Amino acid sequence: MRELLLCPPDHYGIEYEINPWMSRARGAEAAIAQQQWKGLYETLLRLDCKVHLVEPVKGLPDMVFTANAGLAIGKKFVPSNFRHQERAGEAPYFAKWMEAHGYEVTWLPNDYYFEGEGDALFGGDTLFCGYKFRSDVKSHHKVAEMFGCHSISVELVDARFYHIDTCFCPLPDGGAFWFPAAFDEYGQHTIRDHVTDLIDVVEEEAVHFSCNAVVLDRQVVLPEGAPNLVRQLRDRGYECHQLPMSEFLKAGGACKCLTMFLPQRETI
Ligand code: ARG
User: Fold this and answer.
1) What is the pLDDT of residues 150-180, one digit of tens each?
2) All structural domains of the chain with their residue ranges
3) What CATH code would you report for 3-261?
4) Residue 194: HSE in the Cβ half-sphere, 13 Å Cα cutoff
């Protein structure tokens, strides 16, 4: 059974602007956000996940995006060092929760920006890490060293896709779906070199955060708005659960951003 960490959206809102999706003027509808989050929570429960909840904190509206808490492998946890001050306050709360739940917490040096699972996803035995907008390359190297895993860093070039989980989603059969234009040419080559059977997501679907999916074996939980992708996933034997995520898209997040694996990997 997969264990996941979520954070209820009690204090969620658009209170600052740190990515191109966020607009304080537009805001998010609290009641709809609650409903959409509940839809995700219940879907994950139905798919037999054990869902843990961290208590939301007033004044930390993005704490719902638990993928950015850090990265857990086995019983080890490396917390994020957020690039933006607006989110930095979340880190101690997540670290405290992880510690209380039996994780050995090791911090990166202060000047190493790293935004957790949002920028670090295993595809096979390789940890694919995104850098530039949020996480730094030197942090990836450090994180890989701390966990003793093999990592590949790829540069993100489109500010709308500022974390790797917004444009790249590994699948358990070794494949992945992704929005290639979010990566520089070298990153695209690297991904094509290392990942077989890639599904390219078209821009019209990528902007619905279609790559921001929670994959649980053959089940894929993703935002609605990607009929082409869903068809291709179904052809490969995946079952898709499409959820409305409009209120979280307004903060630049969706299903995967709202979820952290506990742990992402049992062993290296
Ligand atoms: N508003 C949040 C931010 O800009 C959204 C985080 C989305 N998380 C993710 N894993 N992509 O940091």
Assistant:
1) 999 999 999 999 999 999 999 999 999 999 9
2) 3-261
3) 3.75.10.10
4) 19
Question: In one letter, which amino acid is 122?
Answer: F
Helix (H, G, I), strand (E, B) or coil at 101: coil
CA distance linking residue 215 with residue 168, whole number of Å: 12
8 A C-beta contact, residue 104 and residue 75:
yes
Measure the CA–CA gap between 5 and 16, rounded to whole angstroms: 24
Q: Which amino acid is at 84?
A: H
How far is it, in rounded angstroms, from Cα 109 to Cα 139?
9
123 with 130: CB under 8 angstroms? no
Single out the catalytic residue among 49, 129, 169, 257. Answer: 257
* Residues within 6 Å of ligand 1 by CB: 18-19, 22, 62, 65, 67-68, 87, 118, 163, 165-166, 251-253, 257
Distance CA 129, CA 105 (A): 20
Tell me which of 140, 163, 208, 241 is the catalytic residue: 163
What pLDDT is stored for residue 87 in this prediction? 98
* Stated pTM of the model: 0.98
